[in-house]
Write a structure and sequence with these properties.
By secondary structure, the chain is an alpha/beta fold. It contains six helices and ten strands, in the order αββααβαββββαβαββ. The chain has a single domain, classed as Rossmann fold, CATH 3.40.50. A six-stranded mixed beta sheet has the order 4-3-7-8-9-10. It binds guanosine-5'-monophosphate (5GP).
Length: about 190
């Protein structure tokens, strides 16, 4: 996706530990036009899969997931990182290690919004080591739901998440793939 690649090259900043900072259009400020195009691209790539629900993780996954849901006319559920007192119907929960924050957090989805017959598309901003994706896999396993595909705005191929997921047969689509952030330089595939 050329427009996304261009924005990454122009506005992305390399941080220590293999992290790309893209606060100007993904993780802090948002560009609705760009996110809408991202939603269209995910729709194009996943339209054939008979998906009936999109799942993401708060907070940065919500924007691309919402636009994808808008395009595909599907509901969007975001996994929460804290248990709200209003979640009374029971919930699925797992523990996820955060790559950027160096700590673990719970990932929670209410039993009301994830059912065994559902065919899920997981959307997130970044794919790094695949910990968030593994959390979603675990929660969908608990619910008995099927994961039909996973879409990421940015995948970092020098971390192992994409390899791990594809090895296990998951359909992974990434709109931009970063092969290296070495030497303060962003190398896109
Ligand atoms: P993973 O769970 O695949 O290890 O990491 C994915 C999650 O960590 C994403 O949801 C994203 O929020 C965050 N993340 C991982 N790598 C980066 C990065 O290079 N830049 C930013 N901004 N977030 C990242």
């Amino acid at each position: 996706m050329d427009i996304l690649r261009q924005r990454i090259l122009e506005e992305g900043r390399c941080l220590d530990g293999g992290i790309l900072k893209v606060d100007s259009f993904v993780n802090h400020q948002l560009d609705p036009q760009l996110v809408m195009q991202i939603g269209e691209e995910f729709e194009r790539r996943f339209a054939h899969l008979n998906i009936n629900k999109i799942i993401t993780v708060e907070a940065s996954g919500i924007a691309p997931a919402l636009m994808t849901g808008y395009r595909m006319k599907l509901p969007v559920v975001f996994a929460k990182k804290k248990q709200p007192s209003t979640m009374v119907a029971g919930f699925y929960q797992t523990e996820v290690t955060s790559f950027t924050k160096h700590r673990s957090y719970p990932m929670i989805i209410s039993k009301e919004y994830l059912k065994s017959e559902e065919n899920i598309l997981f959307i997130d901003d970044f794919l790094a080591h695949g910990n968030a994706a593994r959390g979603i896999i675990d929660i969908c396993r608990q619910a008995g739901a099927t994961i039909a595909g996973m879409g990421f705005m940015v995948e970092k191929s020098f971390q192992q998440g994409g390899y791990w997921l594809r090895q296990r047969g998951y359909l992974v689509e990434s709109l931009a793939i970063i092969d290296s952030l070495e030497g303060n330089r962003i190398t896109l595939r």
